Every structure is written in C-alpha cells, then in structure tokens.
TrEMBL record, chains A, B:
Keywords: FAD, Flavoprotein. This is FAD-binding oxidoreductase. The lineage of its organism: Bacteria, Pseudomonadati, Pseudomonadota, Alphaproteobacteria, Hyphomicrobiales. SUPFAM superfamilies: FAD-binding/transporter-associated domain-like, FAD-linked oxidases, C-terminal domain. It comes from the Bacteria. It comes from Rhizobium helianthi. Residues 41-222 form the FAD-binding PCMH-type domain. Belongs to the FAD-binding oxidoreductase/transferase type 4 family.
Length: 476, 476
C-alpha cells in the first residue's frame, strides 16, 4: 500500500487509546522489535503500541483504518521469516500483544483452555499441567514465543507427529478485523459445521487478515508412560523403514521420530555444553524415538523394546540406547533441539525449512546433497528434522575456512537449488515457519497463478485498505 | 442470483461437453436426484450432467459461467440439509461426480490415498484395507455417500473422537472454480505453511465456492486390538464422568463413546431385526465404548477391563457387558447405528444435529427435555450420539397417537426451543450435517453480523457470478 509517515497528530490519537506508558517511540526501547533473530531483516516503525485488551486492539485498528496507517502485529518476535518485522519505510506501527497474557479459562473436563493471544507458550503448557492436562505444542522458543504468533504462523514443532500443527490444536478464535470489528469465534466445539471455515483462514495468515486476540485451545490427557530411544543407522532409507515399523507398532503413541546426521552429533558434542555422544561408535545417521502412552507406563516400555528388537532383527538399527531416566530423556532431546545452535560456531549456515512426502525423503536427501556439493564443494550439510512429518531442516554450514559473508551471499542461490528438488518431489518450501517477507516472492513464483489469485482475492476481501501487515505473505 | 431457464441451445452446448449419454433430461432418470432422503426438499433441474474427468468439470463450469447457468454439485445425494438439492425454479443443472470414481493412488508408506471426488466412501475404506491401512471416516451412509460430498460437508460420523472430522483426514484438494479454472492443491504433506488455507475453505463450503474433484486423504495403521463394551448408567452426568475416565485411561485409543437413552434401546429392539437388549435389566442411559490399540490386542483388553472396573467401583456403571466376538461387536454398533431408522415406525421425528461443549451435556439434556415436554407433552425424546464429541442427535418422536403431519408441522417451532438452549451453552446448531437450505436463514439469524458478512465476502470473491450452488449456506 501507499502510505506516508503518520503525522504527530495521528500518533497522539493512537497514544490516547492505550496511554503514553504503552505507546513507545523511544528508539532504544523500539530497537529489539525492529529486527528478527537471524538478523535477516531490520525495519523501522513510527510507534510501538501495547494494548491491554481486545477492545483497545479494536480501537487501534479502527483508527488505523481511518488514517490508513499500516499495522504490524507482533507477539514473541521469534518468527524466522520476517513476518513480524516492519518494513523499512518507518510508516507502520507495531502492535504488540504482550500485555494481553491472561489465561481466560481452563476446563479440564471439556479439555479446553482459553488464552489471550499474548500468552507465552510455556505459560499455557504450565496452566494445562496444573490441571493434569497436556497442551502438546512444543518448540525451541516456547519460553518466549506467544500463542498469537504460534497461531498466526500455524507453528509446528516436535509434537506434530501425534498431535498435529497449531491448527489442529485450536477450536476457536477471537479476531479483530482491519476495520476494528471484533469477530467472536471463541467456540469450544469439536464439531461445528456452520458455514465457511473462518478460523482456519486466520490461522496461518501471519497477521495479514486481522489480529488474533484470543483462542480456545485443545488439551489432552497427560501421558503416563514415556520412553525415549536413540538409534544409529546407515541411511535415511533405513530410518524411513524403521519409522514405518514404529508407526505400525505404536500408532498415535509415537510422539516423536527425529532424524539426525553424524555431522549434527559432531557439532553438538563439540559446541553444546554437556552433550555427549550417546553411542560408543559413530554411525552415519541417527533417529530419536519418543513414545508416550496414556494407559500404563509398561505399555511404552513394551513398545520401545519391541521396536528396537524389530529394528535390530531386520538389520535397520546398528546400535541403540534407551534413556533410563528422565534426565537422560531430556539430554537426548536437548541434543536434537540444540542442533541449530551448534552450527553457529561452525560459521555461516544457509537454512531451509522444507517438507516432502515422507516416502521421498531418501531420494530427496541424496539428490539435494549431490546438487549442493556440486554447486559448493566442501559445504557441510547438516540436515535434520521431523522425519515422521516429512519436515527436514536442510541446513548447510559453510565449508571449513570459507568466508562467512561470501558464503551467506549465496543464500538465494542455494535455496533455489534445494527448493527445485523439493518441488519436484511435490514438497513445500515452508513446512512450518511460514512465508513472511522471506519467501513471499518465491511463493508467488512457484505456485499456480490461480492459487496466488485466490489468496489475493481473500486478502482484498478482508483488508480492502491494505493496512494489515503489508508486504507479508502476498503482495496485493 | 437471477437466472432464467437455460435455452435449448445452451443445453445442447452442455450436452456436447459430456456426450448425450451423460447429459440427462429424462424425467424418470432425473427424479431421484431432485429430492433428498428425508423428503424435506424437492427441487427441479434443467439437466443432469455426469462428467467423466476434471477437465470436463472445468469445461462445464466455464460454460456455466459464460451463460450464467446455476450449477448444483451432487455426489451420493445422502446429505441431510438439502445442500445437494436444486431449487424449485428448474433453472439449475445438476453436476454429478458419480462417474469420477477412480482411486488415483494409494501409498501405504506415506499413508496417503488419492481419490476422485466421486469415489464411494466404502470403496475408499476397502482400498485402504487392501494395503493394510485404515481410512477412519465412517458413517451410516458409507455404502452410498461419496467422498466429494463428505469433504464438502466436512462429514463427521462415528470415528471423530480419535481421528477427527473429514477436514482432519484430508491433506490436499483438487477444485474446479466457478470460472472453470482448476486449482491443483493435491499436496501430500503433513506440514505446509505456505499462505492462506484454501483447502479448509473449500472443505465444508457445501459446493458454494467451487467443485471438489479430487482429494489426498490420510491413511492410518490398522488397529490390532479392538474391544467394544456396552454399559448401563443412571444419567448423562454419569456418562460424562465415565467418558473422562475413559479419555484419561485410553487417550487416542478411545475410538468411540456413544450415548443412548433407554427409549432408543426400546425402539431398536422393537423394530430392528436381530437387535436384542444386551443387558438383562433396563437402565435409563447407556454408553457404547469402543477401544482400538495399535501395539497389541492385549492392550485393548487390559484397557476395557480396567475402565469397566473403574466405572463399577466408582458407582458410575450399573451393569456392563464386553462383546466377546467380532459378531457381538458389530451387533452393538448396529444397534447404535440403526437408532434413527428405528424411530420411523414410531411416527414422525423432529431432528436436531447439535453440539455443545461436552461439560455442558448433562445440563443441556435436562433443560432441553424440560422445555420440549412443556411445549409438547407426550413427546418421546430419543437423544443419542457422539458424547465424546459433544454431538447429540436430539431427535424427538411424536407423542403416541399424535397426527404425524401436525407433529412435523412444529419442526421449526421445536428447533427454535432446542437451539436456544444449545446457543445458550455456546453450542452449534449443525454439528456435522452442515447448513444447506435447511439452516441457512437460521444461521444468518444467530451469528454475529460480521461473521455472516465475512462469509459473504468470501462467497463473492470466489463466485462473483453466483452460479455455484446458489441459495445454499449463505444468501448473497
């Protein structure tokens, strides 16, 4: 959209809505909100507003509509595609939901929890735990990301295999539309076939259609049995075959199946404090297997032993260990979750967040490796991720001794090579992180024109003035 | 929309697209397509077209757009809200997908099945079974309903508790838009965060935004353990408490939890051949409990015994029986599934397909009974359904000796009484059947104006000419 810098008069009107303590223009205070974690984007903003209620969000958007002021919603600012970062023109206001962090209700009988969009994910997990329930969404940034952002990006994480993405964990939403109108869709129903699915349209829209201010989330019984195993294997093919066995044996009790390469174990043992190689000799590939059962602790135990036995007998598993304490279970997960951080001391890393149909994972891994090494000899591929979901974080550390800046300069280049193979397999260039600014133009380039056109029609129908998080997901 | 009877010239052009064998105007052949099962709606149509491919569907919609001809998509014609029935003006053509009944692909490793929209649900279940997998969608009409209709209405059924509605069972769609453009969204990915969720917008849209022609469906491991139990209890409150215990104990292994009233057992034992009361003495309420386990048959056995023991010890269960053979399991489910049919010989039945937050079920049942009996003394309430989903088929058989026509004349009347209580509980007036013609105006009346307005904007953005299934779900 075309917009100009909001006048001081307009900014004063915004300030009046939330009080001057919650309307920030101080540069130092603004600074952390203007960039995202990886340092890929750095924007500017006219003001940061921190409303304290849905009504205040409504008043802000109503005024933004009237004055044509672009609004960038932000919660935990942990997104990885620049969706929460304002543009560089400085015309936008950032609307932070951090003060709206109240758990509105917890109902362990109906298995629902109602939360403000600004609640930190870990606080929601804790509130569920306090009533003996599980809110299964779990990801590295859970201590700082907020549920509004999780919903707006349809966050994935480590529990998707059994419980689904954030979309599957949400029953209802409260959304403030660009006009300021409030849609109360806070339903608590498992079945409700009453017209078009507005809820799922706002989920994953990355704040471009409205601002999510509250949500009804699904809770689950807490598992009573939990087992974590770690196995060394020869190849992604072996891992895939083992996944099939695990899936047949455990059904929905299979709560994690993560693939890791040897180089990832090297990086984590080298750079992450306290991480040790769980197996005595090295293997080319590894899987972390997580099993949770609701009936009895013994069921998980029986399952994990049966699975490892099947894996050994069929020659798929070379060696394996079962965590014998909660501390050991946590250590195995910690190794997996710190794999991205462990790449940092190794220099630059070019990232991909892709998914492919899981039966194509072995071919994808082989073809991508060949193509990447041909384009960049010496590149160190550290591809790991949620094998059971087909979601691979195809990360590439720079060749030893390479210049970091020069290496990172080939980001788009290497992306194009990997994404071409992903697309050829019928895969996705953004499995769980979303589109934001990072992949907006790439999305438009790879998808059929009719699909982009339909998205554009939805955007125009919901946000005709184009004030909602402009420049993200889709260009209008 | 305003439309007039298609001219014979236009009809000839439609005929040319599919061949005269697949363009039906013969009244006798048309007749069964013009009415729905319950006899609530009886429409007229200018022609019935049976395209054989997505391309033909595209050509038909393209011509319909050009000529302003309304199109009513139809698959198995088993819908219960008139969504598949043309209007009375006779201006529409019916587009039947019945010839598009090919299973395009089955991949047991990736756990996906790709089907034409015209595939009969039971054929899809069978194709999954043939490769050792489960497609869990299951409902009374599975022998004749077709997957395109299941998707378009987001069908529920008996397996929702563990596997979700049809929405949760679909990974990707192929849709022909009103203009004839084809959207190929046949993705096979569990994680794909790339823009607005078009898939879930078409699911449940009841053919008003486009015609679903193909779908990627999720398959699951086949359970190896299966137990069905039947318990007599004193009240819906006891059933709810038992459900909580079952849910905690079994987690996702709890694959069914159905509530039934004594009168439903009376009706089925009286009218359905082969149905016998499974328990020696009568109880006021009953639940059917279905447990499926993936690891071992013994797990299901242990669970069902533990649950009944807990239920007995806590005084929730008065008496119970566990099916000791597959035949007995089927007999218990047959009783539950024939409960609606068993009402027919008892005279007229006024139906409701409602859901409420499950913790409110006991209150809802008590308040609705009181209100209905006050309005219609002698009414025989046969309320049964998927307690675990909060979905009650609140059916009311006519008082003994009442006039059927007069009784059915009070349909809207009684609906209003029951729905008011449903809404007061935060419930839904259509849990699984959809809106169609039956509940369109009621939906517009009970929902906030902004919600109806957003739906209308979507309808206009996708179908500006208003040719897709006009008059259903929402008036434009």
């Amino acid at each position: 959209m075309d917009s100009s810098l909001p006048s001081s008069d307009v900014l004063a009107r915004f300030t009046a809505l939330v009080g001057s303590a919650n309307a920030i223009t101080d540069e130092e205070e603004l600074a952390p909100r203007l960039k995202e974690n990886r340092g890929l984007y750095h924007g500017r903003a006219a003001m940061l507003l921190k409303p304290g209620s849905t009504l205040e969000v409504s008043q802000i958007l109503s005024l933004a509509s009237e004055t044509g002021t672009p609004v960038v919603p932000q919660t935990g600012n942990t997104g990885l595609v620049g969706g929460q970062t304002p543009g560089e023109d400085g015309h936008s206001i950032i609307l932070s939901l951090e003060r709206m962090n109240r758990i509105r209700d917890v109902d362990p009988v109906a298995n629902v929890l109602v939360a403000d969009a600004g609640c930190i994910l870990a606080d929601i997990q804790r509130a569920a735990e306090e009533v003996g329930r599980l809110f299964p969404l779990s990801l590295g940034s859970e201590g700082s990301c907020r549920i509004g952002g999780n919903l707006s990006t349809n966050a994935g994480g480590t529990a998707v295999l059994a419980y689904g993405n954030t979309r599957q964990l949400c029953l209802g939403l409260e959304v403030v539309l660009p006009t300021g109108e409030i849609w109360d869709g806070l339903r608590r129903l498992k079945k409700d076939n009453t017209g078009y699915d507005l809820r799922d349209l706002f989920i994953g829209a990355e704040g471009t259609l409205g601002v999510i201010t509250g949500a009804v989330l699904k809770l689950f019984p807490r598992p009573v049995g939990h087992q974590v195993a770690f196995a060394g294997l020869a190849s992604p093919q072996a891992a895939l075959q083992l996944f099939e066995k695990a899936s047949n044996l455990c059904g929905t009790a299979l709560t994690g199946f993560e693939l890791m390469p040897r180089i990832g174990i090297d990086f984590t043992t080298r750079h992450i404090q306290g991480v040790r190689d769980p197996l005595p000799t090295p293997h080319d590939w590894y899987v972390l297997i997580d099993i949770s059962t609701s009936d009895a602790a013994e069921t998980a135990e029986t399952m994990v032993h049966a699975l490892l036995e099947q894996g050994m007998e069929s020659g798929l598993i070379e060696d394996a260990v079962i965590a014998s304490s909660v501390a050991q279970q946590k250590a195995l997960w910690h190794m997996r979750e710190s794999m991205s951080d462990a790449q940092k001391p190794e220099g630059g890393s070019i990232k991909h967040d892709v998914s492919v149909p899981i039966s194509t994972i072995p071919d994808f891994m082989a073809e991508a490796e060949k193509a990447v090494l041909a384009a960049m000899p010496g590149a160190r591929i550290c591809a790991f991720g949620h094998l059971g979901d087909g979601n691979i974080h195809y990360n590439i550390s720079q060749p030893i001794g390479a210049d970091k800046g020069e290496f990172l300069g080939r980001w788009r280049d290497i992306n194009a090579i990997v994404h071409a193979i992903v697309l050829e397999k019928g895969g996705s260039i953004s499995a769980e992180h979303g589109i934001g600014q990072l992949k907006r133009d790439e999305l438009a380039a790879i998808r059929p024109a009719i699909e982009i056109d339909l998205m554009r029609r939805i955007k125009r129908a919901f946000d005709p003035a184009g004030i909602m998080n402009p420049g993200k997901v889709i260009s209008v």
